[in-house]
Write a sequence for this structure.
């Protein structure tokens, strides 16, 4: 019982800290967005703010809500956290094009200091945007953290649990970066390759989810001894988690693949393919202090 109380107290502290950080991010992004809107006359539409806030809200559900405390009791909740981080939160955050609004939302001192980030070597930037690397990063995170040994490590150690959550979010941001293109510089591959990219990403997820659903044995023994919720047995919980992953990942990858394919086949698809931009907005022309910093 003391260990359970200590674990619950740790989760309460991390939940509060997560909530504070996410609220601060919303404030900074909104401040920067309003400054950019006044300077660039509508280049940043309101739907980008909605996407960014929705992405952070999904992160809060996964990391800061009461639901997050149940992932040690149900594999289904644990799987739901992974999906919220990687499949829901990551693409919504990227749709918000957060870099410039967050930069412009900071105080002037931090804005000037953050210019050091612009000196990141181009080679590193191209490497992090490479579709092959992004695909491998997303797939590796999914497969590695479902290996029983690493899975148990994440459940038994709060530090490794944080590392696990962070790796899913980072891998999700990398994975969706070639798909969610907010400008010409984000285009690192031809548009026709994106449906193939998404289709190939479903294969390891489908194999893993099918194994969890149909293997007929409990893969993660840690959930055998935990308190049951909703009267699910450990095996039923595992089957539910596998089915949830199977359905959510399939639709999350299928829908953008269909949208991209329709764009390619549309009358203006050839011209868009030449431009190689999926989501694009004009670069804002800043004035005053924003122009000096950015």
């Amino acid at each position: 019982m003391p260990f359970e109380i200590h674990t619950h107290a740790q989760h309460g502290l991390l939940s509060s800290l997560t909530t504070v950080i996410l609220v601060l991010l919303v404030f900074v992004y909104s401040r920067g967005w309003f400054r950019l809107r006044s300077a660039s006359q509508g280049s940043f539409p309101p739907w980008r703010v909605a996407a960014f806030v929705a992405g952070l809200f999904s992160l809060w559900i996964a990391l800061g809500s009461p639901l997050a405390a149940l992932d040690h009791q149900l594999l289904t909740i644990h799987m739901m956290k992974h999906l919220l981080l990687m499949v829901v939160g990551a693409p919504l955050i990227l749709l918000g094009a957060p870099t410039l609004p967050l930069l412009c939302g900071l105080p002037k001192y931090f804005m000037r200091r953050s210019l050091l980030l612009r000196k990141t070597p181009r080679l590193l930037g191209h490497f992090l945007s490479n579709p092959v690397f992004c695909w491998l990063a997303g797939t590796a995170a999914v497969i590695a953290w479902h290996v029983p040994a690493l899975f148990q490590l994440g459940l038994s150690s709060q530090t490794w649990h944080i590392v696990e959550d962070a790796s899913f979010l980072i891998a999700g941001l990398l994975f969706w970066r070639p798909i969610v293109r907010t400008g010409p510089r984000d285009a690192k591959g031809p548009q026709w390759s994106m449906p193939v990219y998404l289709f190939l990403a479903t294969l390891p997820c489908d194999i893993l989810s099918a194994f969890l659903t149909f293997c007929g044995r409990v893969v993660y023994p840690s959930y055998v001894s935990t308190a049951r919720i909703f009267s699910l047995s450990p095996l039923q919980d595992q089957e539910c988690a596998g089915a949830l992953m199977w359905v959510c990942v399939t639709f999350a990858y299928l829908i953008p693949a269909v949208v991209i394919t329709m764009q390619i086949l549309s009358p203006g698809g050839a011209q868009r393919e030449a431009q190689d931009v999926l989501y694009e907005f004009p670069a804002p022309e800043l004035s005053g202090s924003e122009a000096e910093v950015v």
In short: Residues 2-116+141-282 form one domain. The CA atoms of residues 218 and 235 lie 5 Å apart. The two ends are 53 Å apart (CA to CA). The chain has one domain: 2-116+141-282.
